[in-house]
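wait is this the right file?? whatever heres the structure
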């Protein structure tokens, strides 16, 4: 019986009953059958109306339940972010589409960022400001990312974030510090050498005929005996020895004299063009033994003079410049060659000053050789051209070959 009543409640069951009662009500027999059909139709209509009212009441109750329940489903998680209880929303009849809309309701009052602008911060850093579609700022300015850049500060390198107005102290690199230290050391050495030379020029220490040591001021000519701590005259002691500066300069002067003596013996027999061939490792073998000896004496003389003059090792360019200043080169006239001879002699005479007492201990200078200007063979250019590499080639009258632009 319950199954039949459940079927009657359905639209299909009600439709069948309405058809049956309608057939009875419209039967042509009249009497009770028609009355039964009409009564049945009225009953079905009343039942349908009552069922519709019940459904409407249930729907209203569901809507009221949703109105009471849905506002309570909003909350916040541990980080303060808004949450929505979608499971309970499904239980009270909310559709998935409604749940999606309801979950986004807390964001409805928030401003939506439409564009960003980079602005400078108070400390010169770069910041980003956000604005909505109406030009109103959204939140506060946030720090923007700036790529670090490598800054070379000389003594160190580091990555830094560029900021307006930022400055860095630049120091010297290790190689620059080493070069600076060498430069100051050379200056101090030159100052010391100058002071020693001045002292050597002003004062002179010598041993008198009585064997006592005397100090003579060249400016005043006054001689003062050198005495020991107990007041006794100093004889043949440390005062008679060369000072360090005198010893060094005496050594340089000795090397210069030795080079000059050798050059006076063989220099006149070798042309400057052949000597020039020794300047390159590719042409040195063609210069000949005598030209190589002359080149050696020139470099010995120039290097010794530069060491005495500067107190430091001479560079190759400095040596070459001194050789051109004091020794014959291709194209020099006899007058220039003679002038260079006199210049070398005067330079060696000047070297006696810093050598001091050591100069008197050296062997005398050999001046017995004939003048280079009178015996120096004259060399002229025969022809010029260029080799396969493009270098300029010069052939001289003595058979030697030179290179250069």
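ok assuming it is, sequence goes like this
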């Amino acid at each position: 019986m319950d199954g039949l009543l459940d079927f009657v409640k359905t639209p299909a069951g009600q439709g069948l009953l309405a058809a049956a009662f309608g057939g009875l009500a419209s039967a042509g027999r009249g009497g009770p059958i028609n009355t039964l059909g009409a009564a049945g139709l009225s009953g079905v209509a009343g039942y349908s109306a009552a069922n519709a009212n019940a459904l409407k009441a249930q729907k209203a109750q569901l809507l009221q339940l949703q109105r009471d329940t849905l506002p309570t489903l909003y909350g916040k998680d541990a980080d303060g972010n808004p949450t929505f209880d979608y499971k309970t929303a499904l239980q009270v009849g909310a559709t998935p589409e409604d749940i999606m809309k309801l979950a986004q309701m807390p964001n409805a009052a928030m401003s939506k960022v439409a564009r960003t602008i980079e602005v400078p911060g108070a400390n010169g850093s770069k910041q980003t400001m956000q604005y909505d579609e109406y030009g109103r700022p959204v939140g506060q300015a946030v720090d923007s990312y700036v790529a670090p850049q490598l800054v070379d500060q000389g003594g160190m390198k580091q990555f830094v974030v560029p900021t307006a107005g930022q400055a860095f102290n630049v120091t010297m690199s290790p190689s620059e510090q080493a070069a600076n230290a060498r430069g100051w050391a050379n200056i101090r050495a030159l100052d010391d050498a100058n002071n020693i030379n001045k002292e050597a020029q002003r004062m002179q220490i010598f041993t008198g005929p009585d064997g006592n040591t005397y100090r003579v001021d060249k400016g005043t000519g006054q001689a003062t005996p050198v005495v020991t701590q107990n007041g006794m005259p100093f004889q043949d002691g440390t005062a008679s020895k060369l000072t360090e500066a005198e010893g060094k300069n005496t050594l340089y002067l000795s090397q210069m004299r030795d080079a000059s003596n050798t050059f006076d013996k063989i220099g006149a027999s070798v042309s400057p063009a052949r000597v020039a061939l020794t300047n390159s490792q590719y042409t040195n073998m063609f210069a000949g033994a005598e030209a190589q000896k002359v080149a050696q004496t020139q470099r010995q003389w120039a290097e010794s003079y530069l060491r005495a003059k500067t107190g430091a090792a001479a560079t190759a360019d400095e040596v070459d410049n001194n050789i051109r200043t004091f020794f014959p080169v291709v194209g020099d006239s006899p007058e220039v060659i003679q002038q260079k001879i006199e210049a070398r002699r005067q330079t060696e005479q000047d070297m006696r000053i810093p050598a001091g007492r050591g100069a008197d201990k050296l062997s005398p200078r050999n001046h017995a050789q004939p003048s280079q200007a009178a015996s120096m063979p004259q060399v002229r250019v025969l022809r010029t051209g260029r080799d396969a590499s493009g270098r300029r080639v010069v052939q001289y009258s003595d058979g030697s070959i030179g290179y250069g632009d």
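The radius of gyration is 59 Å. so i think its the right one actually
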